[in-house]
Known about the structure:
alpha/beta; Rossmann fold; 6-stranded parallel beta sheet
Amino acid sequence: MKLAVGICGASGAILGLKFVSKIIDNDNLDIFLVVSNGAKKTLKYEHNIDFDCKDKSNPLLNLHNAKNIRILDDLNLAECISSGSFGIDAMAIIPCSMNSLAKIACGISDTLITRSAHVCLKEKKKLLIAPREMPLDSISLQNMLTLSKEGAIIAPPIIGYYSNSDSLESMENFLIGKWLDVLGIKNSIYKRWGQI
């Protein structure tokens, strides 16, 4: 499975890195990771992570060394995932900023993330969007409705309390597990209903 993952500059960009870290050892996936400049700034501000430094001591940055991940430049619209003929199977944007959400809803493809999302929509591939904003205004809700009608899956990071999460990590695992479920990627990283 060819999976594109976009990480935008919304608060919680760390969730995107953690999402990828949970699937890094899945030999059935070829992962194409795009981290926007805004996401790099958010990671630095919120977690003091310099995404471009390739620090081998930080497990979230070992993505640079993984055999099944290609890290692509968000400003290079000539990258492979910008074309429908490349044949990505699915894309997840975790988190999705309101700016990127609006661009995708309006068909603006000025970054690799927004272009690849548009490719998913036109090729009828799975597109999971995890908008990270609260409260939501009517414009953002309308953009989500527009994308939902086009086939995108709107899956914001909302905790399911039935999972009995007792730490931030278990809450994040619940979110990541649900996103993987939506994408059809088998996982066992969270407690499902009936397992509690």
